[in-house]
Automatic annotation (TrEMBL):
Compartment(s) where it occurs, according to its Swiss-Prot or TrEMBL record: Cytoplasm
Gene giving rise to this polypeptide: tilS
EC nos: 6.3.4.19
Protein name per UniProt: tRNA(Ile)-lysidine synthase
Keyword Nucleotide-binding attributed: yes
Species of origin: Aureimonas endophytica
Length: 425
């Protein structure tokens, strides 16, 4: 795990995500015992528990972790999820909220990494769930031991090679009773149903792990090739981000890309430009590539992004019929808008009370590129602040809104070498 951490010139925080269950308690207890080695490497442990507020016992479970951390001499904070608990994909919504809360806490600490206790059993479950939905190498490879969460912030999973039973034993031998979350056995959730049915004999388990490793090796080789291709495009000035948050790609870049890399490249670009969680399906990417490769190629939309084929290919966020979601901003110091921009508070580094971020198109203003840029509104939907690209249309008296694009980060996410994109102002 220490090898995966960036070299620390001074004392930096590491944030442990601890729910109180046996897996995360093992992470807490074992790393607490390694505190001296971590301090020598320049890292101090901090602990966070996310209280989703979905069960009556969640508050006491967070308090239990807080008491244990106090006994261990480790700082702890409870992160409350106050967002709407909508029906539907509640597990997915809660997972996204959990990582957003943890990322915010890590940024506040200046921590370069968040550590979770995902283990070998979780990896096997992830593999079987991917197989059930017909995934390819990327899904069947399971979770990465290290992945990018945000610029300068990694998620580390040091226990992926460790069976869950070993973690439970590590907690039991220390005489600590872990939290029992009944949702882990709730048959309404796919993972819980699979967990109840999955009890592999040792030989089958080894074979499954070998398959996962083979898929991961192919994924990693593909990632390395894609990173090299992105580096080449960058070096040739064939890929850059414009001042309005559009991704610009020379028309020949996709045609000249190796056939195995072209859909990966286009998928990453569309995911970034469209503010999406995942790239579009491979079949949709293949159809779009075929269209773009024809002499009569016209504009297209896919995955929340719109493509303009006049001159260099320009891929931007599509405003859409429903527009983009607004974000309450009052009192915050920094926010992420539509997964595409980091937005800093415009007044003393903070957002004014009762303000919110919205797309410029929310005001029925701007051309297609401007409509998807973030602006800050007050409670009466009056414009408070706007980015430099909208300064002329925003008018006098409007504060500058500091924004930093995240598109480059999202295109490069989890690749072995980060491709640095040119910012064309």
């Amino acid at each position: 795990m220490l090898e995966r951490l960036p070299t620390s010139a001074g004392s930096q925080a590491l944030l442990l995500a601890v729910s109180g269950g046996p897996d995360s308690l093992a992470l807490l207890l074992l790393l607490a015992e390694c505190r001296a080695a971590l301090l020598a490497a320049g890292y101090a442990l901090h602990v966070a528990t996310v209280d989703h507020g979905l069960r009556a016992a969640s508050r006491e479970e967070a308090a239990f972790v807080a008491r244990l951390c106090a006994a261990l001499g480790l700082p702890h904070r409870t992160l409350l999820w106050t967002g709407p608990k909508l029906a539907g994909n509640l597990a997915g919504t809660a997972r996204r909220a959990r990582y957003e809360l943890l990322a915010d806490a890590a940024r506040a600490l200046g921590a370069p990494a968040i550590l979770t206790a995902h283990h070998q059993d979780d990896q096997i479950e992830t593999h079987f769930l991917a197989a059930a939905r017909g995934a390819g190498d990327r899904g069947l490879a399971g979770m990465r031991a290290a992945r990018d969460l945000a610029p300068g912030l990694s998620l580390l999973r040091p226990f992926l090679a460790v069976p869950g039973a070993a973690l439970k034993a590590a907690v039991a031998i220390r005489g600590i009773r872990a939290v029992d979350d009944p949702s882990n056995r709730d048959p309404r959730f796919d993972r819980a149903r699979l967990r109840a049915a999955l009890d592999l004999p040792a030989a089958e388990r080894r074979a499954c792990l070998a398959r996962i490793a083979a898929h991961a090796a192919r994924r990693d080789a593909e990632d390395a090739a894609l990173a090299a291709w992105l580096g080449r495009l960058r070096g040739e000035g064939a890929l850059w981000i414009d001042a309005l948050g559009g991704i610009r790609l020379e028309a020949t870049a996709l045609r000249e890309a190796p056939p195995s890399l072209a859909p990966l490249l286009l998928g990453r670009i569309l995911r970034a430009a469209g503010g999406a969680d995942y790239p579009p399906p491979r079949a949709a990417l293949a159809r779009l590539l075929a269209r773009l490769g024809s002499d009569a190629a016209e504009g297209a939309t896919l995955g929340g992004a719109v493509l303009d084929t006049r001159g260099p290919l320009v891929i931007r966020r599509e405003y859409g019929r429903q527009g983009l979601a607004t974000i309450p901003a009052g009192g915050a110091g920094a926010l992420v808008f539509d997964r595409r921009f980091e937005v800093a508070g415009p007044i003393g580094g903070l957002f004014p009370p009762a303000s919110r971020l919205a797309a410029f198109g929310y005001l029925n203003r701007g051309n297609p590129a401007e409509r998807v840029l973030p602006v800050l509104l007050d409670a009466e939907d009056r414009l408070i602040a706007a980015p430099e690209a909208l300064a002329r249309k925003a008018g006098p008296g409007c504060f500058p809104l500091p924004i930093t694009e995240r598109l480059s980060f999202r295109i490069d996410e989890d690749l072995p070498k980060k491709a640095e994109f040119l910012q064309n102002a």
